[in-house]
Write a structure and sequence with these properties.
Structural class: alpha+beta
Number of domains: 2
Largest sheet: 4 strands, antiparallel
Number of helices: 9
Helix content: 55-70%
Shape: rod-shaped
Strand order of the largest sheet: 4-5-3-6
Radius of gyration: 28 Å
Number of strands: 6
Order of helices and strands: HHHHHEEHHEHEEHE
Length: 221
């Protein structure tokens, strides 16, 4: 009954983390996290109780803890399957880390460390659900954003953009000028670093009010 209780606890704790990942439609969702947690718990039970009948024999040297230790490295193949490279952006690292953490929770539940397993579940869930809005807000402010401007040739310079935008020159990451499709016009691409979408929209509005500017578009990054 003790073993059944530990396996059931591991399934319940794994489901808490899995539901958070399932909410975001990741490949490793509810069932994957539950299976990882239950599997790690079973490995821990095997490590703790599976070799009791031979440990007392003479000339038998055995370290059951090595079974649990292999879970730490063996869970890596599942984590690697959730990591994707899309262009220059790596996705899935958080889900891979959650699988690794769930395996540790399963080992703790299998070893009877109930307080540690419950506390770790609460912390992991809080990190995944509670810290995401803060992370997204910070990422939104720190990522590079760009404008595509069509204007009369020679009217836009770095000093002009700085005066209109109110941003220091250090925020301007890239300033590229190319001949426009219309005679006596040019196409300017300006990339700003560490600028929120609200500030970029305000800069675009100010640039549109300039008499020599034909169009201003916000480019998707």
């Amino acid at each position: 009954m003790e073993m059944i209780g530990r396996l059931a606890l591991a399934a319940a704790l794994g489901s808490v983390i899995g539901l958070e990942r399932e909410r975001l439609l990741w490949a490793a969702g509810l069932r994957t996290h539950m299976l990882v947690c239950v599997g790690a718990c079973l490995f821990m039970l095997v490590s703790a109780f599976g070799f009791g009948d031979i440990l007392g024999h003479d000339r038998v040297v055995l370290d059951p803890s090595r079974v649990a230790a292999q879970v730490v490295s063996g869970i890596g193949f599942l984590g690697a399957g959730t990591i994707l490279l899309r262009g220059e952006v790596v996705r899935g690292l958080t889900t891979a880390a959650s699988l690794w953490a769930v395996a540790a929770i399963g080992l703790a539940a299998g070893g009877g460390l109930y307080v540690a397993a419950l506390t770790a579940t609460g912390l992991v869930f809080g990190i995944l659900a509670g810290m995401k809005p803060i992370e997204e807000r910070w990422r939104d402010r720190s990522q590079s954003r760009a404008l595509r401007i069509v204007a009369r040739a020679g009217c836009l310079t770095l000093d002009t953009v700085q005066a209109v935008s109110g941003q220091p020159l250090s925020r301007i990451k890239r300033f590229v000028v190319q001949p426009g499709a219309v005679e006596n016009s040019e196409e300017v691409r300006i990339a700003f670093a560490r600028l929120s979408s609200e500030h970029l929209a305000e800069i675009a509005r100010r640039l549109r009010e300039q008499p020599d500017v034909t169009s201003v578009e916000i480019e998707d990054r």
